[in-house]
Amino acid sequence: MYQALLTRRYLTSKIMPLLSSLAVMLCTTMVLVTWSVMGGFLKVLLDSGRKLVGDVKIEWPNTGFAYYDELIRDLEADSGLTVTPRAGQRSTAASPPKGLIIAAAPIIESFGVLGLPDGRTVNVMLKGVEPVSFDRVTNYYGTLWWKPLKEPLPKDDDKEDPRLQNLTRVDMLIPGAVPDDKSDAWPAMLENGKNLQRYHTGSGQVKPAVVLGTEVTGYNRRSASGVYVPMRSRSRDSDGNINLLSTFMPLDGEVTLHVLPLDKKGRGIEMQSRIFPVANEFKTDVFLFDKGVAILPLGELQKMLKMDAAKRLQTGKPGVRIVKDPKTGEEKIEMASQDQLTEDPARVTGVLVRGKDGVDARVLRDRCEEIYAEFAARHPGEVPLAASMNIQTWQQQNAGFIGAVEKEIALVLFLFSMISLVAVVLVLSIFWSMVSEKTKDIGILRAIGASKMGIAWLWLRYGLAIGIVGSIMGFGLSSLIIMNINPIHEWMGRAMGIQIWDPSIYYFTQIPSDLRWDKVLLVLGGGIIFSVLGALIPAIRASRMDPVRALRFE
């Protein structure tokens, strides 16, 4: 009983315990805010990392595999009904559930070289897709950048985003780039990007087109508010003179695409080159994608890589046959060719799969492995074996990138946790001085019958109370900061000229955050434990005091 009374008295009558609580509060706030912001950064990266890749990829790179339409039908027909095991097949409870797949889309991925209007060349990862199915899997339409915009982005206070008005703004930035009849072309650009095509003024035809990442050409300047502003590009002629180009890529720009087809054994055949108009540009918030990816129609890339359907002459062994002369009726033996004209089906390098919301990607991968195994069993010798097929979740595809960010978060949290040990030292030093100050009180308690354990528990309880108060205050302060972190950052920029989160460097215009209860409980528990540990040594010292000497203490 006396422990509770003395704890409340010591906690409310002295300023020094409040300093300990303040230290615990600041350390708790520091760790929670850091963990929340970096966790939010990772969460946004992971959400962005799923763009253009789906949840699971079934892949056979370089040469690709055939009958992908059939595989996609199998994946999308995954009904979730209970399947009766065939004869000789054992039913296992460990099999992944069915009905997990929403959509699947074919894709060809290959390296290529883009020739730009200014004469430069850039290396890119080409993605040949069917726009409709690709959007169902990856939300591709939502990544298209050049489109009508009604409201400015959160950081665009000056409304410098060209999409907020018609293309006259672009014509001011790039003189001569926008004809009068195309001043309101934003809706057309959006449709061009969705369909991967663009109307060609010279021929009067709609032609297949490419969609580039916003950072591929280098013709877009990323402003301090996080929006892209088109720039006038320059080219240098053979005499060294610099010429200014009046080209806005999604409106009238063209690129030359160079690819190297491979045969079924992975050997290069002959370089293929083709000019494509640019339909639009995309932004995924993942720099690796926005800087190095170009998207074009699946059929066009299949033709360039010699992966489209074609007739093939299959040479066989020579043989003989018996024929009858129609005039004489005489039978005779003649040589016969065993050559056959066969159909070589179209191929892709992969199939992207999207699962239902909330489905674990690993469970979805296991289900895709089952479906592919059944598909491969129907085409022995025609498609890769199930055991050798590369089937990965989106986390596995980006394992190196995700792992690096997670290690950085762990390192920062470790360093801040070490800094938080200051709270332990501060609690220890304050309690040590308080034990010295309360020596006579301890002697009186021991004289009237308080046990050593009772005295120790008094100080440990005192440390526990300080930890609880400091941790709760830290949680409240960190919650206030996290919920208002972007307004606080904007105020710092206006009042003090400090801009920690620069949208022109970071790909997110807003500071992300992810405050989760498991993190909160772990940090609050750590703050309480650290406070109790800080009070442990003074508590042991107080419990070992001789009551007679303590009563004589002056």
Question: How would you characterize this protein structure?
Answer:
The protein is of the alpha+beta class and 554 residues long. It has three domains: 2-49 and 402-551, no CATH class; 56-309 and 345-397, no CATH class; 312-343, no CATH class. Helix content is 44%, strand content 20%. It is built from 17 helices and 21 strands. Strands 3-4-14-7-13-12 form a six-stranded mixed barrel, surrounded by four helices. A two-stranded antiparallel ribbon has the order 2-19. Strands 5-6 form a two-stranded antiparallel ribbon. α2 runs antiparallel to α12 (399-437), α2 packs across α14 (452-483) and α12 (399-437) runs parallel beside α16 (517-543). The chain is elongated, with a radius of gyration of 35 Å. It starts with a helix and ends with a helix. Mean pLDDT is 80; it is low at 80-93.
Short description:
With 554 residues, this protein is α+β, with helices and mostly antiparallel strands.
